[in-house]
Amino acid sequence: MAQLAVNGGNKACEHAWPTWPIWGDEERKGLNDVLESGQWWYGEKVRKFERAFADFQDAKFGVTVCNGTVAIEAALTTLGIGAGDEVIVPPYTFVATASAVMRVGAAPVFADILPENLCIDPADIEAKITEKTKAIMPVHLGGHIADMDALNDIAAKHGIPVVEDACHSWGSQWKGKGTGALGACGVFSFQASKNITSAEGGIVLTDDEDLADRCRSYTNCGRAEGRPWYEHHRLGSNLRLTEFQAAILLAQLTRLETQTLKRQANAAVLDETLSGAPGITVLTNDVRMTRRSYHFYTFRIRPGELGVGREKFIEALAAEGVPASPGYSIPLYKNPVFYHLDEEPAARSFADSVDYAKVCCPVCEAVCSDAVWLPQAFLLADEQAVRDAAAAIVKVCENIGELR
Ligand SMILES: Cc1ncc(COP(=O)(O)O)c(C=O)c1O
């Protein structure tokens, strides 16, 4: 029996894991070109990136914005969603999935997630639909695509759009088509931790030209293409990206496919090694998902069987040199913001009628206490290093008795 490093045994992994972001001469040149050109503002490089990223995701149109949060707001506003409406979202996600719904004045309604992939459960969506439901917004969690066939069927049945929160799924493909335009539209984030980044940034993708035009207008002060500069046609905002950000994103995009495939290959190594480990549940990749981006790799522990909780387990992994984290540790609806909605002007239309204290999504609640995340940069390590990390995780499971 190996002694655990947390108890003074040998550390299993001495690797220096890759750090993020990764950049090189492509970013340097792109930034310098923009600087020297004097054209710093929303121009040719922004347009070039919109085209390139939309192509990469197999979407017809792309409208860049300054982050993923406002990308959701722009998508919902463009679809005409606002006060008095409801949008169905999962509770195992970043706050923006629900807060952006509230920012446009609509109420987020939480549908539980599936235990096998942590994406929204279509059956629970059906159970939560009311006459106020105006959109379904799945999150492709960690790059795993929600069941878009089922979601599009439900949406068609009720005559409502699916808006993909694709903020973790650059490069993910469903039956060979990229995320983002699998439903009515989809949104991506290019924030600093994301697999393609310009520190901040986002994009709305769609196959619907009219939706793209209205979205562009909204993000550019309500302007209309080909109309005078100081003529404003709709209530818009300023959500524009700069040429500097577009230059970085164009450079980052040149590496995205290779990095995606590498993360995917390393995730397969983890799946294979961890599926036999005592006390660990490996998640399942839907076979219809033909490529997966992996914003993080997630597995679940069975604390009852291991006899220790997640905190101690992660501490033991850290001591072995494995960079794990607990990820989202409370369901979104348990965040304090949902308990004093009377103080939020944007929530006026539903603050009196929705009581988030009564919401319960049992699968999400369990996952919030037993999921373990490994970050996307770790998945860019050499295969042998990932094999060593997988062996270290198994070592912790097999010697967990030392921690009880
Ligand atoms: C699932 C999800 N949706 C939306 C966002 C919001 O993106 P941004 O941080 O670019 O506003 C994030 C960011 O982490 C996210 O993880």
Give an account of the 3D structure:
- The protein is an alpha/beta fold and 404 residues long.
- It has a domain at 25-252: Type I PLP-dependent aspartate aminotransferase-like (Major domain) (Aspartate Aminotransferase, domain 2, 3-Layer(aba) Sandwich), CATH 3.40.640.
- 36% of the residues lie in helices and 13% in strands.
- It contains twelve helices and 13 strands.
- It has helices spanning 25-37, 44-56, 68-78, 96-103, 122-128, 148-158, 209-219, 243-274, 303-306, 310-320, 362-370, 383-398, and strands spanning 61-65, 86-89, 107-110, 133-136, 163-165, 173-174, 177-178, 185-189, 202-206, 280-282, 289-291, 296-301, 371-375.
- The strands form four sheets. The protein has a four-stranded mixed sheet with strand order 1-9-8-5, sandwiched between helices. It has a three-stranded parallel sheet with strand order 3-2-4, covered by helices on one side. A three-stranded antiparallel sheet has the order 7-6-11.
- Strand 2, helix 4 and strand 3 (107-110) form a beta-alpha-beta unit.
- It starts with 24 loop residues before the first helix and ends in a 6-residue tail after the last helix.
- The structure holds pyridoxal-5'-phosphate (PLP).
